[in-house]
Amino acid sequence: MAVDLSRYYNDLDQLSKATFDQLQTIEGVGPNIAQAIVDWFAKERNSDVLQKLYSAGVWPRVVSEEKETAMGKPFDGLSFVVTGTLPGFTREGVKDYIEQLGGKVIDSVSKKTSYLLLGENPGSKFDKARELNIPILDEEGLRKLAAQ
Prior knowledge:
Blueprint: H1 2-6, H2 12-16, H3 20-24, H4 31-42, H5 44-55, H6 65-71, E1 79-83, H7 91-100, E2 104-106, E3 115-118, H8 124-131, E4 136-137, H9 139-147
Parallel strand pairs: 1-2, 1-3, 3-4
């Protein structure tokens, strides 16, 4: 369903403004689903969640493959090592995030490592990265790098 909706709406802001009738024009969206979407966006607590996501820089957008190929992805050619606990990501979630932006997550720090992503309670990877002068990012730094 999300893929079908993304063909018509580039981001959650556009989807939030869709009317019941507009949603029903999408193949596979009947009256029940259309109403559920409209109702979801009408709830104040959901608006609050969306605002928090937007403020944190987490705002899914559709980027056409043509545009993505022409522009490249922000993390193309970069390798990341993750150490410690990140408050905004699960381990699998940060890996997916980096890979969707063209990067690669590797297990050990070496001279070829582009960045160390540092969370709370890091392990020995932090010491190794400092020893090799690998740039170190926190979660906010990762998001800023992705936005460049």
